[in-house]
UniProtKB/TrEMBL annotation, chain A:
Record's protein name: ABC transmembrane type-1 domain-containing protein
Domain ABC transmembrane type-1 as annotated: residue spans: 117-307
Subcellular location: Cell membrane
Provenance organism: Plantactinospora mayteni
Main location group: membrane
PANTHER family, sorted: PUTRESCINE TRANSPORT SYSTEM PERMEASE PROTEIN POTI
Length: 327, 285
């Protein structure tokens, strides 16, 4: 597969990337020069012109920098996507060599990789389910109730977020070893739930505290029971937050390497597989998984956007009607 | 607000399972880690460790791996600074200038995080490779010697480290900038403030919560990171995480690994508290 066409495509792609990068730099530098020049001109030509021109240049300078930074953020993803169509020249090579579709046709060709992906999905589902439930309950307690020890609970919830993963991983390993618990699938799940819970609490809490509490009061004034108010008013409004938290938890779990590395025993998740393979030579199919994950994430974000847009548009027509009524 | 009687037990019931999990699998392990760091270093995994309150493990660990410890904070500090300088313009544009492109740009910031972190880090090997466009361009511009390379240098590690945690800088910055009332900026302009003044006197102070949150979310994980140093550097770029990983998984020297972990955590805590004191109280969460 590939041959001359592949080499042609690779060369073209390389040249294209170089060209784009150079153009980025040129634009960025151009803006910088323009900004300098703009400031110089501005000082000579008085306040009015200065203000107009200066602001124009300042605006566009910021836009150019932002575009460059965005390029920096997206470059590795583009490279991963490109490498998923690459037939590397040797096992330890990371350079573009030949174009091929083989990696996509047979993503499981790399020995053990698909089993690792499956393992990651299993861990991810269990960890997401448990952490979403635990975290949502905690978020409700923290937002809706005033109780003794609230500050301490807040600290405990945020502490894992503020702890580097190496410390989380090693401390759990120290405990497991001291308690004589063998490491494996379930210790990985335990570890993942531990660091996902905090993110769930923070995400759901943000949604919950942004919610108008008077809606529930209104429901209960209209003779809804506490449970009905929760079921029919609160839950539907908080659900997007819970869904976002679950998505976040899954992606954190699926992608976790450091904590898993210390607590997995012989269980091989996808990141563990990649880590091990990086020393022996990375099979190109790894990039197929990376690209597929990116595509799935894009789809889910697009879907959530569509969902939110439809609710927002219905809400905005409602609010428009209500303001008109008030006038 | 709270409803009497039953209402007082409810929050504790809601908290119970989550709290139990955190106490058992976060707090207790932290205590065990501290205990492990004081075990007799002469012990081993097979023969077992004796608790001898060996505080000497700490100076020993610093003497052996002080360079890696210092490098962790140096690289992470640099990466945080770079992420702030790069992330601020991006967050600013997304929050205040993007208009209807706002959501798409946010997706561009978030979506890369869904592509495996390790795979993306490995992609930098391709980008920065000796035959790649970046090295070629830098050589042509004489910013790099004709035989100079980027891979296996601190530059590669910091580039990738900055990249990894940039979204964690951009998102809090975006959140605080988006909350900013654009009429304040207009008002400043109406009162004859120049764009630079508006930024320095209005935008920046109001976005400080985002700056604080972003720097913390970048600095803390970057300090503990060792994947970038392992994949893109050489032992000359190793950070403390590499040493901890080796101590626990290769050399099986638990007391030393634990001592380094505790040191890392304590140093981070001290720096974070110092930074919060200086930058003003930040809103948690």
């Amino acid at each position: 597969m590939g041959g001359r066409f592949g080499r042609f495509a690779a060369v073209r792609f390389g040249r294209f990337a170089a060209d784009t990068f150079a153009r980025f730099v040129a634009i960025g530098f151009g803006r910088f020069a323009a900004d300098r020049l703009g400031r110089f001109v501005a000082e000579r030509f008085g306040r009015f012109v200065a203000d107009r021109f200066g602001r124009f240049v300042a605006d566009h300078w910021v836009l150019a920098v932002a575009a460059l930074v965005l390029g920096y953020l997206l470059l590795p993803v583009a490279v991963v996507a490109g490498l998923s169509f690459n037939q590397p020249s040797s096992r330890l090579s990371y350079d573009f060599a030949e174009f091929t579709l083989d990696n996509w046709r047979d993503p499981c060709a790399g020995p053990g990789m698909c089993a690792a992906v499956l393992r990651s999905v299993q861990v991810g589902f269990v960890a997401t389910a448990v952490s979403t439930v635990l975290g949502t309950l905690m978020a409700f307690a923290l937002v809706r109730h005033r109780f003794r020890g609230r500050a301490a609970v807040n600290v405990l919830v945020l502490a894992p977020v503020a702890t580097p993963e190496v410390v989380l991983g090693t401390s759990l390993l120290a405990l497991l070893v001291a308690a004589g618990i063998p490491q494996g699938f379930w210790t990985v799940v335990i570890a993942h739930v531990m660091f996902c819970v905090s993110f769930v609490v923070v995400t759901v809490r943000a949604r919950l505290s942004g919610m108008d509490g008077r809606l529930e009061e209104a429901a209960m004034d209209l003779y809804a029971s506490e449970w009905q108010a929760f079921r029919r008013v609160t839950l539907p409004l908080v659900l997007p937050g819970i869904a976002a938290a679950a998505l976040l938890a899954f992606s954190l779990s699926f992608d976790d390497f450091v904590v898993t590395n210390f607590n997995s025993g012989t269980t091989v998740t996808f990141p563990m597989y990649v880590w091990g393979a990086s020393q022996r030579g990375i099979p190109p199919q790894v990039n197929v998984v990376g690209t597929a994950m990116f595509a799935v994430a894009l789809l889910m974000l697009a879907a959530s956007r569509l969902g939110r847009r439809s609710t927002r548009s219905s809400r905005s027509t409602r609010s428009r009607r209500s303001t008109r009524g008030r006038r | 607000m709270s409803r009497s009687g039953r209402g007082r037990v409810v929050p504790y019931l809601l908290l119970l399972p989550g709290l139990l999990w955190l106490v058992l699998f976060f707090l207790a392990p932290a205590v065990q880690l501290a205990a492990t760091s004081l075990y007799d270093p002469a012990g081993s995994l097979t023969s077992g460790y004796a608790m001898t309150w060996s505080f000497g493990n700490y100076p020993d660990a610093v003497a052996a791996y002080g360079a890696q410890l210092g490098r962790s904070f140096g690289y992470a500090g640099l990466a945080t600074l770079l992420a702030l300088l790069l992330g601020y313009p991006l967050a600013y544009v997304i929050a205040l200038r993007a208009g209807r492109w706002q959501y798409l740009l946010l997706v561009c910031v978030v979506a890369p995080m869904f592509t495996s972190f390790l795979v993306r880090t490995l992609a930098w090997k391709t980008v920065l490779s000796d035959g790649g466009a970046v090295v070629g361009l830098l050589r042509d511009l004489h910013l790099l010697a004709p035989d100079g390379r980027l891979l296996a240098t601190p530059a590669a590690v910091v580039t990738s480290l900055t990249y990894c945690y940039l979204p964690f800088m951009v998102l809090p910055l975006y959140a605080s900038l988006q909350r900013l009332d654009p009429r304040l900026l207009e008002a400043a302009g109406d009162l004859f403030a120049r764009p630079a003044q508006v930024f320095r006197r209005v935008t920046l102070p109001l976005s400080m919560p985002g700056v604080v949150a972003g720097t913390l979310l970048t600095f803390i994980p970057a300090t503990g990171d060792y994947v970038n140093a392992e994949l893109l550097g050489t032992p000359n770029e190793y950070m403390v995480g590499n040493v901890i990983d080796a101590a626990f998984l290769v050399r099986l020297d638990y007391p030393q690994g634990a001592a380094l972990s505790v040191l890392l955590m304590v140093a981070i805590l001290a720096l974070v508290i110092g930074w919060l004191r200086r930058a003003g109280p930040a809103e948690a969460g």
